[in-house]
Amino acid sequence: MGPLDGADLPGYRQVAEHAWTDDHGDVISLHFFDLPPDIPAPLEEPAPLRKALAHVTADAGGGLIEADVVRVAGLPTLRQVLKVPLPDRPRGQAFLGSYTLPRAACSAVAKVQAFEDGPTGMREAQVLAELGPEHYFLEHPYAPGLRGGLPFHRADAPEYDERFPGHPLTRVRTALAHLARTLSAAPDFARLPPFTGPAGRRTRLLGR
Predict the structure, then answer these.
(1) Count of domains in the chain?
(2) Residue 29 lies in a domain
């Protein structure tokens, strides 16, 4: 048992102690990191938090689709959905979703990974054809003027999930929604001191 339990989703089979997969090859995994969370701002400050996360993701070559602060297993949680290029392939993307439950000196993370396979870009191409480029590509809502990484566009919006139920982004969001209802936190983990912001920020506030 780690700090999180309850990731046994319908259609997934366990392949390792804290990892599950399904027939698509999507992967759900639970992790514990015994070090201060690498979160760039307090959860109580969503605007600077989202802006920093958007830049970090773009600098790594990806694109942040969503970042929200929610409650999972009764604890404040950072929810992220992002996309990255598939490594060693000319086309295609991987979509990653996560819940990070940060405490002051450690964190628990639930991850969902889904990859494009076969024909790629069908969702994007259909939405682009319907809207036209001028309405399809958008400024990043968390970091206007952001350059680099993968573009922010309308096809990634949740409103298109119902039209593309088999798309990996839809599958990631579906799995995250289920995890939000089923995950539980170990009492010892939940009682740990809460995350109040990056270590550097805490040092400055203490006058060190």
Answers:
(1) 1
(2) yes
| Burial class for 49, CB neighbours closer than 10 Å (0-12, 13-18, 19+) | buried
Residue 149 has pLDDT above 50, yes or no: yes
Indicate whether this model's pTM tops 0.85: yes
pLDDT band at residue 70, thresholds of 50, 70 and 90?
A: very high
What is the rounded CA–CA span in Å between residue 147 and residue 103? 32
Q: What are phi and psi of 139, to 5 degrees?
A: -65, 145
- Which residues have CB under 8 Å from 202's CB, separation 6+? 196
Residues with Cβ within 8 Å of residue 126, at least 6 apart in sequence = 155
CATH of the domain at 133: 3.40.1000
User: In sequence order, what DSSP letters do the residues of 106-125 get, joined into one string?
Assistant: -EEEEEEEEE--SS-SHHHH
pLDDT grade, residue 204 (50/70/90)? very low
Q: Is the pLDDT of residue 3 over 90?
A: yes
Residue 134 forms part of a structural domain: yes
Does any domain span residue 111? yes
Q: Give the domain extent around 75.
A: 4-191
**Residue 199 domain flag:** no
